[in-house]
Amino acid sequence: MKRAAFLDRDGVINIDHAYVHDREHFEWVPGVLEGARMLTDAGFLLVVVTNQSGIGRGYYTEADFHALTDWMCGVFAEAGAPIAAVRFCPHHPEKALGLYRRECRCRKPQPGMILDAAKDLNIDLSRSILFGDKPGDCTAGRSAGLPERVLLGTDGKCQPEACVDSTRTAKDLLSAVRSDWMTAFIRS
């Protein structure tokens, strides 16, 4: 079975400008590609798990999301950090329109995106890790059985306060991957 690093998108990979859905508004968090490459070099599959209620709210379409995702994955691949899978949830229980308005098992803090990716990609969750910038990301990781859940500073701006569902905190992905505890986790 494979190890994976599950990454939230907005606030971890790109600056969270709210409902980012095109390249014009996509701005990389500094160091994210280097950190992702280091994770890939250490043997982790990269899996993006992202809530995208902007689709459900009608701000952009699934086609818009996929076009941006294809471009983003291409940049990761060029950086030596290919993305193995991207899981997204377009639903919201209150603020979405039509069929998108519903409770679901995939919207974080629920673990559905992580569990589905683990099944499809033969991932050993007990040896995997999640990086998110919101407590709900870490809650999803804990519910999925991930032993390490790292709460990052949104947009890499500052070290966050620990939350009940995170095992670690770091300013951004690169500083997390360079940490002594991550080196020990990689070797485990």
Automatic annotation (TrEMBL):
The record marks 107 as: Contributes to substrate recognition. It holds the Pfam family Hydrolase_like. It comes from the Bacteria. Its cofactor is Zn(2+); Mg(2+). Signal peptide: none annotated. It comes from Sutterella wadsworthensis HGA0223. CDD domains: HAD_HisB-N. Substrate binds at residues 8-10, 16-19, 50-53, 107-108, 134. This is D,D-heptose 1,7-bisphosphate phosphatase. Keywords: Carbohydrate metabolism, Cytoplasm, Hydrolase, Magnesium, Metal-binding, Zinc.
